[in-house]
Specification:
about 250 residues, alpha/beta, Rossmann fold, 6-stranded mixed sheet, about 35% helix, binds adenosine-5'-triphosphate, transport, ATP binding, ATP hydrolysis activity, EC 3.6.3.-
Length: about 250
């Protein structure tokens, strides 16, 4: 890793109900770059994000170079009642609103919500019911919500899973733009190796422990992927295709 670290993890271990989910994870997340976390199902990727967010107990240490770094989080699945009468605007103003929504939403907050939606090219969704959005639309709205907290670090858990190819490309382009303009540190859990090769500049492969890490050119190779995912987990030909794909 050539650049300064934004987050340093030392010997991070997580146990849930007696099961070791992460074991002695020691790594650094480079500042102002996109880091992809990859690895097989159940390997502990989401758990690692939750430890960084301090949502679960862990042993070892996780330290931030910037002491009061704000963190934005786009979870894998947003838990909410799809039938609830909440619009996108309500969702975006809720975390900042200090009075109940039935008192109305100030013009300033509304304008701010529109501004962040515009940044993710979703201003047309402002008054749409949150529960009626498609997967790709919801991801963009969640990204707008994370960005409006003006974070310096953004964690994304499988942001493009279930999103069609065009939606995936749009989302990744937005991420790239936003991360460059705002000089954000991004950590993205993904199974999409094409996305990793194209957008990430650092990759950490987790399967309980750190299996590999480095530039996608070093980590996303046919041999290393076959080792990480096993012969059945990923076809070697697919791995080779990804490995030869578009890279920074
Ligand atoms: N609260 C919990 N109690 C017990 N086991 C848990 C808990 N949370 C997660 N696990 C287990 O920890 C392991 C890692 O889960 P995690 O969600 O971090 O994996 P992941 O790499 O993100 O997986 P995927 O790629 O399938 O999303 C899994 O075996 C999961 O069942």
């Amino acid at each position: 890793m050539g650049s300064q670290a934004a987050i340093t993890l030392e010997n991070v271990s997580v146990r849930q109900q007696g099961v070791r989910i992460l074991e002695s994870v020691t790594t650094q997340i480079p500042a102002r770059q996109v880091t992809a976390i990859i690895g097989p199902n159940g390997g502990g990727k989401t758990t690692l994000l939750r430890a960084i967010l301090r949502l679960i107990p862990f042993s070892g240490s996780i330290s931030f170079t910037e002491p009061n770094a704000r963190i934005g989080y786009v979870p894998q699945r947003l838990e909410f009642d799809r039938g609830a009468p909440i619009t996108v605007r309500d969702f975006l103003v809720m975390p900042r609103q200090r009075v109940p929504l039935w008192f109305g939403v100030s013009r300033q907050r509304r304008e701010r919500a529109v501004e962040f939606l515009r940044q993710v090219r979703a201003e047309h969704l402002l008054m749409r019911p949150l529960g009626k959005l498609s997967g790709g639309e919801l991801q963009r709205v969640q990204l707008a919500q994370a960005l409006q907290e003006e974070p310096s670090i953004v964690l994304l858990d499988e942001p493009v899973s279930g999103v069609d190819v065009a939606g995936e490309q749009l989302f990744c382009e937005l991420l790239e733009q936003v991360s460059q303009v705002r000089r954000l540190t991004m950590i993205m859990v993904t199974h999409d190796l094409a996305v990793v090769s194209r957008y990430a500049s650092h990759v950490i492969c987790i399967n309980r422990r750190v299996q590999r890490e480095g530039h996608p050119r070093e980590v996303v190779t046919a041999d290393s992927l076959a080792t990480i995912y096993g012969a059945t987990g990923l076809d070697r030909a697919d791995a080779a295709t990804f490995a030869e794909g578009d890279r920074r």
